Amino acid sequence: MRHFSHFAAIDWSGARGARQRGIALAVASGTAAPALVRPGHIWSRAEMLDWLEGVAASGIDMLIGFDFSAAFAFADREAYFPEWPESPADLPSLWALVERLTAADPHYEVGGFLVHPQARRHFRHGRGDVGDLFEAGAGRLRVVEQHQRATRQAASVSNFNLVGAAQVGKASLAGMRLLHRLSGRMPLWPLDPVPPAGPLLVEIYTGLAARAAGVPAGRSKIRDGAALDAALAELGSPPVRHIGPIGDHASDALLTAAWLRAIAHDPARWAPAPLTDTLARTEGWTFGIV
Predict the structure, then answer these.
(1) What is the reported pTM?
(2) Please, what sign has the CA dihedral across residues 123, 124, 128, 129?
(3) Where along the chain do its domains lie?
(4) Measured distance CA(262)–CA(283) in Å, rounded
(5) What percentage of the chain reaches a pLDDT higher than 90?
(6) In whole angstroms, what is the distance from residue 116 CA to residue 287 CA?
(7) Does the pLDDT of residue 217 top 80, yes or no?
């Protein structure tokens, strides 16, 4: 597998507003302890895009993980949005559709997409507000999400569900607006080939890093510096030596950056058995799920 000298993890948010306390960014460089980028800063999504564009322009050998889904389920219905004539055929077309319908939304928000009469049919929006094409129960899952549940590697939820603390649908839609802007400028695995040099984007699930670091299932949020250092040690990383409480978004980013560094050399992580060329084009894959 190719060499990366830097490993970044982005904890993301789809909440409304100009700045999000739920966004955090950490980088693990060389063998040093991971470090937050702009610690204490309240990021905007526009600032994160600016940072990513700077990385793209620099050509630095950095593996960058983002904690949102690059796509919705496609394989189960051969469409993202069945019964919608405009339903896209692949990832870049999906991102372009999301951008077109949210162009008037500020701060990379996604309200314009979710109020579209065809789009809203596919989502659970709230208690008593469920689209007629939302799949009963948990909602539609991508192949990677079905696989990680079946193998008990993770327990992600459907991106078509917009209700509850675990929902990631809004964050994923907001992230797709950034991916639309980065398309052709920074490759995304597995949609794009792994370049011989330069930065590369991958989708991540921070819970995987927590499990790998020995954090028990159901208690994946670390809010104490000593606990974070103990988890980092499980990944072979130096400690950050943060004293006292730490925000869980910051700890997620720090731990996941170290986890990416620990597993990126493993060829199996880049060649999961269920992944096909068709899935790479339509659904993508969560890095680390094998």
Answers:
(1) 0.96
(2) negative
(3) 1-290
(4) 25
(5) 92
(6) 31
(7) no
